[in-house]
Amino acid sequence: MNEKMLKLGKNRSAIREIFEFGNKLRAEIGAENVYDFSLGNPYPPAPDCLTETLEKLIKNPAVHAYTSAPGAQSVREAVANSISTRFGLAQPSSLIYMTAGAAASLCSVLSATVACKDDKVVVFAPYFPEYKVFIEATGATVSEVMCNDKFLLDRDNLEKALDKNVVALIINSPNNPTGAVYPKENLQEIFDLLEKKEKEYGHPIIVICDEPYRELVYGDIDVPYIPTMCKNSVVCYSYSKVMSLPGERIGYVAVSPNMDNAYDYFSAVCGAGRSLGYVCAPSLFQFAVAENIDKTSDFTTYANNGKTLYNHLTKLGLDCVNPDGAFYLFVKAPFLNAEEFCEKAKKYNILLVPSTSFGVSGYVRISYCVSEKTVNASLPAFTELMKEYK
Ligand code: PLP
């Protein structure tokens, strides 16, 4: 048996652990009395037009056949056209690889990028905990770089970590767990530094853009499309969050046409997908998303929940980052003791995730992808919880 895999399988993620605790609590006291903010499971349904497409497609036996390993050509074209039209970068369909969600996109891209055991991949803390699992599976080492106090990318911290063994970094915007969206100037500082270091070390440093929340932003927030700013970049996209389809496992890898040796890199992604068994992404959903390519779920509930929680928690004296995107609120725990705060919250049936698994201490993550009713009902419970700190 592979000891590494055994350990991974036995140690469930902290988030899943809390979710399972929530299941027990729901059975005991009723779902309506549990304020479960643990998991990032989308709340609104998939767009109606997508459900209608599915009803039509499902009757067509051809839809259930294998597609080509990187996806059906018509689907890859629909994705490439959407990228070209929306972001003004001529994206060839021959550099699109359809995948089973962002997790499969990230694993394929990391496996295509990491070449030897000395390689390092940078992640910005706080970060999505599975990055560590995905990176270490390739044999590379994770190099953690702290964001600044506003949870934006920190150029100086990155410079300290950027030695010649760094082959890639992962940028996730809109961000899980902070809800931050990195502005253009913030990204530009990072890309200028990378360009300098690429010249110094004589090899590319690949920017892996993890984008499952791309369209999920509030107000007039611009999410820069990184491949228009940085040539050695590859996008790992997913329809899990924006079309509320996490169980269907559908997304894509888009290699930037400006990347050095873009077509060879794409072949390495195909090779990685093949070696991991990530070929021919779920065909029904390939065709379904292609027919509804620029549609999203209705994000009104998220916008309202974010506002309601931010206003209430800041009134209670908690220090939170006002989210620009995604559906998470990152809150500083009283006395920076996140574990204690989460334990106390459980007494009021509020389930939160401590930030330790995101690579920082002292914060909690609130996933507000729940109904507005649940958020409103949780407010008195938060008020009671905070009385413990008076
Ligand atoms: N990346 C981030 C930042 C996420 O939050 C998630 C899921 O929560 C994923 C990747 C994985 O997404 P998918 O369901 O598409 O595999």
How would you sum up this structure, described in words?
With 390 residues, the protein is α/β, with parallel strands linked by helices. The protein folds into two domains: 136 residues, Alpha-Beta Complex (Aspartate Aminotransferase, domain 1); 244 residues, Aspartate Aminotransferase, domain 2, CATH 3.40.640. It has 13 helices and 13 strands. The strands form three sheets. Strands 2-8-7-6-5-3-4 form a seven-stranded mixed β-sheet, sandwiched between helices. The protein has a four-stranded antiparallel β-sheet with strand order 9-10-13-12. Helix 3 packs across helix 10. The longest helix has 18 residues. Pyridoxal-5'-phosphate binds next to helix 5.
List keywords for this structure.
Aspartate Aminotransferase, domain 2, Aspartate Aminotransferase, domain 1, about 400 residues, 13 helices, binds pyridoxal-5'-phosphate, alpha/beta, single chain
CATH classification, class level of the largest domain = Alpha Beta
Helix percentage: 40-55%
Q: Identify the CATH homologous superfamily of the largest domain.
A: Type I PLP-dependent aspartate aminotransferase-like (Major domain)
**Number of helical runs?**
13
Would you identify the CATH architecture of the largest domain? 3-Layer(aba) Sandwich
Note the run of SSEs as H and E. Answer: HHEHHEHEHEHEHEEEHHHEEHEEEH
Radius of gyration: 21 Å
Q: Can you list the strand order of the major beta sheet?
A: 2-8-7-6-5-3-4
The set of bound ligands, ions and cofactors reads: pyridoxal-5'-phosphate
